[in-house]
Amino acid sequence: MARTGIDTSILHKGAHSASYFDLARAAGEGAEIVDFCIPCNPYFPTPEMFDELSRDLKSILKYYPSDAATITKKLASVLNLHPQTVAMANGSTELITWIDHLLVKESLAIPIPTFGRWTDQPLETGKRVDMFPLQERDGFRLDLEEYVEFIRERKSRVAVICNVNNPDGNYLPRRDVIRFMDALSDLDLVVVDESFIDFSDAERYPSVGPDAVIRPNAVVLKSLGKNFGLHGIRFGYLLANPAIAGKIAKTLPKWNLNSLAEKVVHMISDHEMEYEESLRLLSRDRRAMARELSRIPGLTVFPSQGNFFLVKLPAEWSGVALRDFLVANHGIMTRECGNKLGMTSQFMRLVVRQTDDVDRLVDGMMDYGQRFHTRPAYDTDPLESSSRRWAESAYDEQPDNLIPYPGHRTTEYTARRAAG
Ligand SMILES: Cc1ncc(COP(=O)(O)O)c(C=O)c1O
Known about the structure:
Elements (H helix, E strand, L loop, with lengths): L19 H8 L6 E2 L11 H9 L1 H6 L5 H12 L6 E4 L1 H13 L3 E6 L4 H8 L3 E6 L10 H11 L3 E5 L11 H10 L5 E5 L15 H4 L5 E6 H4 L8 E5 L1 H10 L7 H10 L3 H22 L6 E2 L6 E5 L6 H12 L1 E2 L1 E2 L10 E5 L3 H18 L39 H8 L1
Parallel strand pairs: 1-11, 3-4, 3-5, 5-6, 6-7
Antiparallel strand pairs: 2-8, 7-8, 9-10, 10-13, 12-13
Helix pairs in contact: 4-12, 5-6, 13-15, 14-15
The structure holds pyridoxal-5'-phosphate.
């Protein structure tokens, strides 16, 4: 029996997860939903920044924004980027669309699982999509040498990587991504989607943006909506050499960006410290959440450098049933990954949130485990139960959803890497 009164049939419509607004409408007034589905920055903008935006809302909505070139120029100056190497649009999704229309001619390679638009967009425009399956037994980590070999075998003309990758949270060191770009300098295009890279704390300067703008065929993508916790504004940008960035920028409509985006771009420089602090707090919460989740018996938690975790549910759990149960009984929204290419319903993506919310999620998951499945471990205090971390034990057993892929072979790229 649903305690929140939310009609969960809304979760079963369409290939993408229900939007927060769909769910809030279904829940009705007063219902509080804790969202573990949409990866946000919970610490940014600060309440003071929201107050400033609210104060200016009337003029923001009433008047036209400046044209896209003016807003882009301001963004470049705020972020210290060469203005001719930047093209700005309504989120990285719009840029993916234009990259596909303008720069992808016949084929595109992409590791899966990943963000769905990277497979769906080129398929919708009749391109060949060469999907490189990441392996659960490797923790879904991308081996760049094997990927280059795959691209050569398939003769793909465009190569894409997401760093950090969604949904597994894996991070590729900057030096390896630079080598990857160099190994593929003869392709039409190499795209590094860094929409989540600001959340990574693996190295001080993780972005290959400065390296992309001095290469003939490289593009780096950034999502301001993700970084600044403002998905609703829809803004993002790409970095590339002036010929590529100019081609995209010239194609976009003159007043393509909205006044809220313009307002936030002008606010960034005054709030750099708060932004840095938000990233530090998020890293702290990520470590705490990994610890809490790993206390659920049978749950596999994949290490992440993003603002989300990929988890594999205990074998006897159903991702769809758990997702519906959490919405209906605990007011918690999660992302079950059954509709992602290269995943199954046994996987969930859970965004990083603060301890109180994570406690509520863990309680909800334990409640599901206790009600529907009998496992001796659920009769004990979950905090005293044995943990199962990906790094320790998950791969002792043969995973049940393996997509076979040929093993490692030496390539020209491997040899170059070894020599370097
Ligand atoms: C890897 C990746 N790139 C791009 C996007 C799209 O971001 P935006 O909201 O800026 O359109 C997403 C959204 O989830 C994503 O996961």
